[in-house]
Automatic annotation (TrEMBL):
The keyword Plastid does not apply. This is Caspase-14. Residues 155-242 form the Caspase family p10 domain. The lineage of its organism: Eukaryota, Metazoa, Chordata, Craniata, Vertebrata. Its main location: cytoplasm. Heterodimer of a large and a small subunit, both processed from the precursor; the mature active form is a p17/p10 dimer and the intermediate form a p20/p8 dimer.
């Protein structure tokens, strides 16, 4: 038996413009150019209008995102979704700009929420964050073989401020994110491979990214390390990129 097709109201309308903004600190981050190349290839294949900015300062992270929001709200055409890729050194909740100053991730995320960005209201907003979230390192562990609808009649339809957002972090809270000097980061390279090779709803694709990363063994400082991404979703519908 084939799976029934999801109903139209269960799937985001991806027929309009797809926009992507990548802000990447390449300074003192060897291998980040390989990640930028991979992302450019992915966005091209998935039909995104892609903008990439290298070496933003902390203030420019904020300004570039606000410019992105204002440009979207000024457009007359239908916008389907936006991807924002943020790549830098970081700590939990913060990114380090090219000027060594820190910017709060929460401030960046707020720019495109349903309150502040009309063009993306009720549309998917996907944030991909390739950055450390702390200093912890994971050696790994051995494994043994063993919708509620409450809408009053005649009430106006509203939407929560923070829905339709997907945050994809390269690592879990408190842990290091790894990057190879030549090949780029395990996270970005794996994500691009899965997003360009496979079809399906994005959360399903991200499960595959997590599986591949969990199976990978990274050698860092001469020791085997494990790393996995963390996905936080308030999407209300299925999001298909292919």
């Amino acid at each position: 038996m084939s799976n029934p097709q999801p109903l139209e109201e269960e799937v985001y309308d991806m027929s309009g413009a797809r926009l992507a903004l990548t802000l990447c600190v390449t300074k003192a981050r060897k291998g980040s150019e390989a990640d930028l190349d991979a992302l450019e290839r992915m966005f091209q294949q998935l039909g995104f209008e892609s903008t990439m900015k290298r070496n933003p300062t902390a203030q420019q992270f904020q300004e570039e995102l606000e410019n992105f929001q204002q440009a979207m709200d000024a457009r007359d055409d239908f916008i389907s979704c936006a991807f924002v890729v943020l790549m830098a050194h970081g700590l939990e909740g913060r990114l380090k700009g090219e000027d060594e100053k820190m910017v709060e991730l929460e401030n960046l995320f707020e720019v495109l929420n349903n309150k502040n960005c009309r063009a993306l209201r009720a549309k998917p907003k996907v944030y991909i964050v390739q950055a450390c979230r702390g200093e912890h390192r994971d050696p790994g562990e051995t494994v043994s073989g063993d919708n509620i609808v409450m809408v009053a009649k005649d009430s106006p339809q509203t939407i929560p401020t923070y829905t339709d957002t997907l945050h994809i972090y390269s690592t879990v809270e408190g842990y290091i994110a790894y990057r190879h000097d030549k090949e780029g980061s395990c996270f970005i390279q794996t994500l691009v491979d899965v997003f360009t090779e496979r079809k399906g709803p994005i959360l399903e694709l991200l499960t595959e990214v997590t599986r591949r990363m969990a199976e990978a063994e990274l050698i860092q400082e001469g020791k085997a390390r494990k790393v996995n991404p963390e996905i936080q979703s308030t999407l209300r519908k299925r999001l298909y990129l292919q």
